[in-house]
Amino acid sequence: xxKLNGLHLLLSYQCTFECEHCFAWGSPxxxxxxxxxxxxxxxxxxxxAGTVEWIYFEGxxxxxxxxxxxxxxxxxxxxxxxxxxxxxxxxATSLEDALLWLTPLAGKIQDLTISSDLFHFxxxxxxxxxxxxxxxxxxxxxxxxxxxxxxxxxxxxxxxQIPSDSSSIMFRGRAAEKLAPKVPHYPAEQFTSCxxxxxxxxxxxxxxxxxxxxxxxxxxxxxxxxxxLDTICDLFDPETNPIISHLLDGGPYKLSxxxxxxxxxxxxxxxxxxxxxxKFLRNQYSDILTPxxxxxxxxx
Length: 300
Prior knowledge:
The protein is α/β, with parallel strands linked by helices. The protein has helices at 36-49, 66-78, 95-102, 127-139, 174-178, 229-235, 244-256, 270-281, and strands at residues 6-12, 54-59, 82-87, 111-115, 143-146, 186-187, 204-207, 212-216, 219-223, 266-267.
């Protein structure tokens, strides 16, 4: 049984960028977008749960579906949730434009988090981030900046998905394919814990457009469109979950040993081993290791 204080809504898997470090394989060609009806349903269940304080809108890139995002923000605000938005700020092409996009959000969101790094733009501190920073200051919107360092630069690891400072890459999702070959690898035997997620009591989870409740990207606790949030949280038992139980007991290395056909070698980090193991186990645990989008499979 878990009690959640935050739901992060992946409004869409689609994105303006196709960043090499992306957990969710966001790209212009990715599929899966949340409808307003689904947002209403999620917010109703979050209200009924009684423990959820924060609702985040992210992606992919949520500003691609601006009117749906704005309607969702208004609904969450009206229901007394604290609201956050995570964006790559592609839309902030000038200060005037940044103000145009952000003014309807003023007074309704308690956190605006933007990405500014060399994965998104040609400069670490992009002109878009500068425009958003000034616009947020004028509109009194609290602002944070995500900066993911390049593979060859040392940076702090972070717990969860919104770091407070420059952070290192987690080699899962597209990063496992695109960036892991660029860094040193280490024996699988040393990855005996999950360094980034609290798998027994996560606090916050992600909800994707299909209703999957992700404790970590690509590990679903259940589907919020098939059964209500309270039921999923009440029935969750990390000690019996066939994926999470192994991660808690011995990390990605323990999970990799659950199937004798998978032979672990050397990996960039714990996320890399975990992600490659989960890809191997997907046919066996298709209801948990889902959806295709989180594993780089583009579907119609």
